[in-house]
Amino acid sequence: AVRNPGEAEFHEAVAGVLTTLAPVLEQHPEYQDEAILERIVEPERVIHFRVPWIDDEGTYHVNRGYRVQFNSALGPYKGGIRFHPTVSASIVKFLGFEQIFKNALTGQQIGGGKGGSDFNPAGRSNTEIMRFCQSFMTGLYRNIGASMDIPAGDIGVGGREVGYMYGQYKRLVGQFEAGVLTGKGVGWGGSRVRTEATGYGLVAFTREMLKTRGEDLEDQTVSVSGSGNVAIYAIERLIQLGARPVTFSDSSGWVYDADGVDLDLLKEIKEVYRGRVADYVEERPRAEFHQRGSIWDVPVDIALPSAVQHEINADHARALIKNGVKAVAEGSNMSTTADGVDVFDDSDILYGPGKAANAGGVAVSALEMQQNSARQSWTAEDVAGRLDAIMEDIHTQCAEHSMQYTGRPDNYVAGSNAAGFVRVADAMIAQGLV
Ligand code: NDP
């Protein structure tokens, strides 16, 4: 806190990891001897830049751009870019720190990084978004590259924004260096199943957790929050596997559809004409739109928070448990507050933290990098099969490390932190004092 004043989210993320690592450090004195903790909490590099742009009325704006290159022990920095008014140095550092361990869990050769801007894309025209993306990339392009740092999308940055940023990068460096960004369009270097990857991976991780208790997804009722990339494809995969998703949300409110979410309608609203979730109930009169109350009060078997950080607090966690939830898996990063995590920890429900449960997106980004290096384009079946295998492996690693360090197989918080940390720490030691 003294070295990073005012960075509350970053402190929380670091505390969340470090508090679970005591047994790991006991079994590995070399990590303490070689100051791994002191090094791992310090980003290798932080880039902070000005993003000036002009709106459609000719008014000047200046936003802040960030890129934190946190750790390259396992590969080039890799992590998304977020455009949201809440983006700050603290938010980017918290996300970048978590990304190190998440990326390690995927088993791929990717280090950890994250970026973003406090730009608010809400209500901006397509040309404003394009100009902003071009200015953002003009500030960033010197510091990224296919073997150096590979950004991707996150909140507020989808295929359209990645496309505009890639176009500007190409223009600035004069080369078609496909591997510099992931989340590209499938026709020009993107991977099939990248759009679906985080949501599909989240459902795969949930399925693996349920398997340990002899259950599957068939006929389970599920609450999902958010209605963006992660939420929509989690809902799609749940429906494919016979589950019944009944909620979704955006920053204006949440929808409860007891009949099960009509995915085609939701996609049309959010992906085609970029509307609000309230539009859904106009077409589905039996569904309810709520601006008050909590989405987590809906009684469900499974909850998949997939909107923003801190969307579940201790009261929400208690309400979910009281209503009989069996499993909670995080699509969003740091979905649950620290005291909410304590509530889940003290219960016997299955709780999959984001760094394990939502790693499917970055895993397929790593597969996109592989396809770019080889100048190949794999089939959807191929990528989806690899994604499933990676999520199963992440679950196994979490369970094994949980067993090794806590004596029980289902402490996914401790298991994911330990598994990610050990892989990074061993690589850092092997590479000397860097
Ligand atoms: P999107 O921008 O596509 O969607 C975010 C969704 O969350 C939108 O529906 C947004 O609504 C909603 N939202 C924002 N604030 C609130 C709020 N206060 N209450 C309810 N809903 C809200 O982002 P993604 O789906 O890509 O990302 C969602 C989360 O998943 C983030 O935490 C991200 O870091 C994480 N994640 C994403 C990955 C990916 O591959 N995309 C990979 C791993 C993690 P509105 O339109 O009103 O803002």
From TrEMBL:
One of its GO terms (biological process) is glutamate biosynthetic process. The active site is at 114 (proton donor). The keyword Hydrolase does not apply. Residues 191-432 form the Glutamate/phenylalanine/leucine/valine/L-tryptophan dehydrogenase C-terminal domain. Transmembrane segments: none annotated. The record marks 154 as: Important for catalysis. One of its GO terms (molecular function) is glutamate dehydrogenase (NADP+) activity. NAD(+) binds at residues 198, 229. Keywords: NAD, Nucleotide-binding, Oxidoreductase. InterPro entries: Aminoacid_DH-like_N_sf, Glu/Leu/Phe/Val/Trp_DH, Glu/Leu/Phe/Val/Trp_DH_C, Glu/Leu/Phe/Val/Trp_DH_dimer, Glu_DH, Glu_Leu_Phe_Val_DH, NAD(P)-bd_dom_sf, NAD_bind_Glu_DH. SMART domains: ELFV_dehydrog. NCBIfam families: PRK09414.1. Homohexamer. This is Glutamate dehydrogenase. It comes from Flaviflexus salsibiostraticola.
